[in-house]
């Protein structure tokens, strides 16, 4: 069986708290029984204890075995609250003078609704409490228990006022919990957005220069730990200044975005593409030697020359590329510097070519 998820552990903890509250209620019942305040037999107390303990164990097992995930509400809040309230009213039936005090346990149960219930849930559970109270009064009347109408009405009024107050408090706590969760989600999304902006180029969506340096350092660390190589490719768009002069800065940006997308599609999932600035890009090819990188980049160069650029049907682009493969124990700065020197040779040699160094 897999370990419980964070949500399941939270549900398990809440259910455990509810079980502890039920056991404390059971302890009160035993103390009252011992003091003679309950008109119930020892066998009846044993049955009540069995029901409380077994029901708590079943709720805990349902969560531990992930059976609760089959339900609409995996927390089983309504089911647990309804059962606990029914047990409280059932035990209150056997109390004599302390019945109003025992019913206060219902208010404790209502507080658990703050974890999950909304207004509709509190209304439903409130109606259930009213039905249980009415059934209790009817059962006591049928049993012939001494009931003073004025006292019972006053006790009922106080009980339902407290019930309403606790329900409103629980509802407000639930609303605060929902608001806090929403703000936490917004904060988490904002942090993720900031982190994403910190490592990506705003124009193309590729990795930026700063994060490219971190990637190079990571690749070097991996290469130094085992039989692992990588190649660095510096890609420069030839004479890109003419594109800006012909189509304007906005047109140039659109072309750069399309180039970035083409480069992203050209590499494998294990490779990385970054924009270093202007019209210069970096390809970091993992597990690749110089010869393999040269073959890949040659295909890319031809693909760029034959590409059709959306919004610029007459545009033709070429690239100059410098490649260097990592050499064991050298710094990644040295690898990048050799790729830069190779790029310079490609440009000096007439552009539109690939140079491996």
Provide an overview of this structure.
By secondary structure, this protein is an alpha+beta fold. Helices cover 65% and strands 9% of the residues. It has a 5-stranded mixed beta sheet, sandwiched between helices. Strand 4, helix 11 and strand 5 form a beta-alpha-beta unit. The chain is elongated and about 110 Å long. The protein starts with 5 loop residues before the first helix and ends with a strand.
Keywords for this entry:
2 domains; five-stranded mixed β-sheet; 357 residues; alpha+beta; Alpha-Beta Plaits; 11 helices; elongated
Count of the domains? 2
How far the N terminus sits from the C terminus, by CA atoms, comes to: 54 Å
Mean pLDDT score, rounded? 89
Main structural class: alpha+beta
Oligomer category: single chain
Beta-strand content = 5-15%
Helical stretch count?
Answer: 11
What is the gyration radius calculated from CA atoms?
A: 36 Å
Parts with pLDDT < 50 across at least 5 consecutive residues: none
- Helix percentage range: 55-70%
| Main sheet record | 5 strands, mixed
Query: What is the molecular shape?
Result: elongated
**Element-by-element helix/strand order:** HHHHHHHHEHEEHEHE
**In total, how many beta strands?**
5
| Order of strands in the sheet with most strands | 2-3-1-4-5
């Amino acid at each position: 069986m897999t370990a419980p998820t964070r949500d399941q552990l939270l549900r398990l903890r809440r259910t455990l708290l509810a079980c502890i509250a039920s056991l404390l209620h059971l302890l009160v019942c035993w103390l009252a029984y011992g003091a003679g305040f309950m008109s119930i037999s020892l066998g009846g107390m044993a049955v009540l204890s069995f029901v409380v303990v077994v029901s708590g164990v079943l709720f805990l097992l349902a969560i531990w075995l992930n059976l609760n995930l089959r339900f609409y509400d995996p927390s089983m809040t309504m089911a647990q609250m309804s059962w606990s309230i029914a047990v409280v009213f059932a035990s209150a039936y056997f109390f004599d003078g302390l019945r109003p005090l025992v019913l206060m346990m219902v208010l404790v149960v209502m507080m658990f609704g703050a974890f999950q219930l909304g207004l509709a849930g509190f209304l439903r559970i409130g109606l259930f409490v009213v039905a249980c109270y009415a059934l209790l009064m009817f059962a006591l009347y049928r049993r012939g228990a001494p009931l003073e109408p004025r006292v019972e009405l006053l006790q009922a009024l106080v009980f339902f006022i407290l019930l309403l107050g606790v329900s409103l408090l629980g509802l407000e706590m639930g609303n605060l919990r929902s608001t806090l969760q929403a703000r936490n989600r917004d904060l988490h999304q904002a942090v993720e957005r900031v982190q994403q902006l910190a490592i990506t180029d705003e124009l193309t969506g590729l990795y930026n220069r700063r994060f490219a340096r971190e990637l190079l350092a990571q690749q070097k660390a991996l290469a130094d730990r085992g039989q692992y190589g990588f190649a660095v490719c510096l890609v420069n768009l030839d004479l890109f200044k003419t594109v800006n002069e012909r189509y304007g800065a906005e047109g140039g940006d659109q072309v750069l975005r399309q180039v970035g997308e083409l480069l992203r599609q050209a590499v494998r999932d294990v490779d990385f593409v970054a924009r270093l600035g202007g019209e210069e890009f970096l390809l970091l090819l993992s597990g690749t030697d110089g010869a393999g990188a040269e073959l890949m980049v040659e295909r890319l160069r031809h693909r760029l020359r034959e590409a059709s650029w959306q919004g610029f049907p007459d545009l033709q682009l070429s690239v100059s590329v410098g490649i260097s493969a990592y050499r064991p124990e050298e710094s990644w700065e040295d690898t990048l510097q050799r790729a830069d020197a190779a790029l310079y040779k490609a440009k000096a040699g007439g552009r539109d070519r690939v140079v491996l160094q």
